Amino acid sequence: MTERIVLGGALISSSDSVLQLDHGVWIKGDRVAGVGPNDVLLHAHPGVDIVDVRNLLLMPGFVNAHTHAYGLLAHGIPIHEAPAGFYAFLDKFWWPRVENRLDEAMIEAAMGLACHRMIQSGVTTFCDVLEAPNAPEGILDTEANVVRRSGLRAVLMTEASERLGTAQGNRLLVENARFVREHRQDERMRGMVCIHTSFTCSETFVKSAVRTREDVDCDLHLHLSESDYEPAACLENHGLRPVLWYEKLGLWNASVLASQVVSVDEEELQVLADRGVRAAHMPLSNCEVGGGVAPVPTMIDHGMCPGLGTDGYVGDPFEVMRAAFLIHKGVHRNPLAMPAQTVLSMATSWGATAVGWPHIGSIAPEMKADLIGIDIDFDTPLAPENALDQIVLYRNANHVKLTIVDGEILMKDGHVLTLDGDALRHHVHVQANRLWGGHQ
Question: What are the residue ranges of helices labelled H in 255-410?
Answer without folding.
Answer: 266-274, 283-288, 296-301, 317-332, 340-347, 349-354, 387-394
